[in-house]
Amino acid sequence: MKKSTMKKIIYNGIFVLLLAVALVMIFNRAIKNTVIDSYKPKITRQAIVKAQRHMKNATNHHRRQPVSYNFKKVKSLDFQTAVAARMNTRTIQPAGQILIPQSGIHLPIGLGVANQTLALAAGTMRPDQRMGHGNYPLAGHHMVNPKILFGPLYYKTKVGQQIYLTDMKQVYQYRVYRRTFIAATRVDVINQTKRPIVTLVTCDATGKGRLMIRGRLVAQYRLNAATPKIKRAFLRPANNLS
Length: 242
What we know:
- The protein is an alpha+beta fold.
- 32% of the residues lie in helices and 25% in strands.
- Strands 1-2-3-4-7-8-6-5 form an eight-stranded mixed β-barrel.
- Keywords: Hydrolase, Membrane, Protease, Thiol protease, Transmembrane, Transmembrane helix.
């Protein structure tokens, strides 16, 4: 093969590689959103019970916890984290689902706030929290896209809307009574309370502060007793309101 031909092949290869890199950089956000939106897991009661046992066994045997509750390690959601999370979804330990129909939110709930968990789901913020008992705080990423993760929480969630949580056995229905912005240092909002509430936390538009949504528990019933619309939503794959 002539040197000129070899050089041409090398130059063409470099050009294609640079073009691919440039396209990824240009469409980084769109690709990231597509990757996140493609995660539509089927949440089952069996998977939730398995995750709970896994956590309990780790505690009883003084092993390292399989999930993280270290807020200091939470980073902004970038393209690499989203792709890594999507390729390794087994790291997410399911706790249930959250549904806010009027906001267009239907997400899986994962245990903890590890970066890969928050890349695809809402995450629990304390290891001892239980749906319907005291304060049940959840964290989620604020996204520019108002349809991804907790993006709808920022753009669409208002006082008076209904929030539904399920552990695939019971449904816990909350009514939003507070929407407010707080400092990022307000970790006290995840503390336990006597009154059963849900606390949803995401970043504000600047990324320096936080938006907090709170709802009071107004009803609790078995999943099979839910309205047909709510039941259908929870029985279909998460992240899917179609």
